[in-house]
Amino acid sequence: MIRIILTDIEGTTSSISFVHEVLFPYAAEHMAEFVREGHQSTPEISAQLDAVAEVSGTDRSDIDALIEVLLKWIQEDRKETSLKALQGMLWQQGYQEGAFHGHVYADAADYLQRWHDRGLRLFVYSSGSVKAQKLIFGFSDAGDLTPFFSGYFDTRVGGKKQPEAYRTILGELGVEAETVLFLSDVEAELEAAESVGMKTVWLVREGKKPDSSRPVAADFAEVDALLRAR
Ligand SMILES: CSCCC(=O)C(=O)COP(=O)(O)O
Ligand SMILES: [Mg+2]
């Protein structure tokens, strides 16, 4: 019996275009100024720059070169934990100034509330940092959705295509794998979750549903129908 829903964000609760056409360009536009202003005075920024330097093999004292690395990583959609942490800090400013709201599909907002009210426990697992996750749901088009969530996981538990990450999440939740339903739009992530025993539904929000041996849903209403049919 499913007791926990673990959901991805981009392509699942929220549109890919919001992440790629609003959030990433905002980060790219403000990254240089943000890093130059905060790299000495803000320990959280400085610590992430240490990690950027280490992973990229860049001289830690060369701030221009570190900014170049970060901008290249944004263009490549790299899921580096340090980039994701810096993006989360940057987006806070954008949300708070009202530059944008977090996009959450209406069906997702609706069923997150219904599932929460039915007693299911809801968690997020996204490559975006926990801070970024709380922001997209906290400043969403549908209002503050964070009260529906019991917790958040990001790439600090591992990459989303790595089975080990899902094992770590199960350990932290302290539950049996088959009580967890993982929702994602990326098949490799679903395979990793299934390999440790989690149940999955593949969200295919655009276009025709593919033939697949795993459950596929176009939106959260269809996920709910699959849940009830189990
Ligand atoms: C938390 S909103 C920003 C999402 C993000 O930065 C990202 O890389 C999307 O990753 P996901 O694992 O949600 O597909
Ligand atoms: Mg996704």
UniProtKB/TrEMBL annotation:
The catalytic activity, as recorded, is: 5-methylsulfanyl-2,3-dioxopentyl phosphate + H2O = 1,2-dihydroxy-5-(methylsulfanyl)pent-1-en-3-one + phosphate
Give the organism, scientific name.
Marinobacter confluentis
MF terms per GO, please? 2,3-diketo-5-methylthiopentyl-1-phosphate enolase activity; 2-hydroxy-3-keto-5-methylthiopentenyl-1-phosphate phosphatase activity; acireductone synthase activity; magnesium ion binding
Q: What is the stated purpose of this protein?
A: Bifunctional enzyme that catalyzes the enolization of 2,3-diketo-5-methylthiopentyl-1-phosphate (DK-MTP-1-P) into the intermediate 2-hydroxy-3-keto-5-methylthiopentenyl-1-phosphate (HK-MTPenyl-1-P), which is then dephosphorylated to form the acireductone 1,2-dihydroxy-3-keto-5-methylthiopentene (DHK-MTPene).
- A Pfam family annotated for this chain is Hydrolase
- Quick one: which pathway? Amino-acid biosynthesis; L-methionine biosynthesis via salvage pathway; L-methionine from S-methyl-5-thio-alpha-D-ribose 1-phosphate: step 4/6; Amino-acid biosynthesis; L-methionine biosynthesis via salvage pathway; L-methionine from S-methyl-5-thio-alpha-D-ribose 1-phosphate: step 3/6
Biological processes, Gene Ontology terms = L-methionine salvage from methylthioadenosine
Q: Which HAMAP family match?
A: Salvage_MtnC
Cofactor remark: Binds 1 Mg(2+) ion per subunit.
Main EC class the enzyme belongs to: hydrolase
Q: Which EC number(s) does the record attach to this protein?
A: 3.1.3.77
Q: Which cofactor does it need?
A: Mg(2+)
Name of encoding gene: mtnC
Q: Which family does it belong to?
A: Belongs to the HAD-like hydrolase superfamily. MasA/MtnC family.
Question: How does it associate, per the subunit comment?
Answer: Monomer.
Q: Which InterPro entries match?
A: Enolase-ppase_E1 (IPR023943), HAD-like_sf (IPR036412), HAD-SF_hydro_IA (IPR006439), HAD_sf (IPR023214)
Query: What is this protein's name?
Result: Enolase-phosphatase E1
Q: Which keywords appear in this protein's UniProt record, sorted alphabetically?
A: Amino-acid biosynthesis, Hydrolase, Magnesium, Metal-binding, Methionine biosynthesis
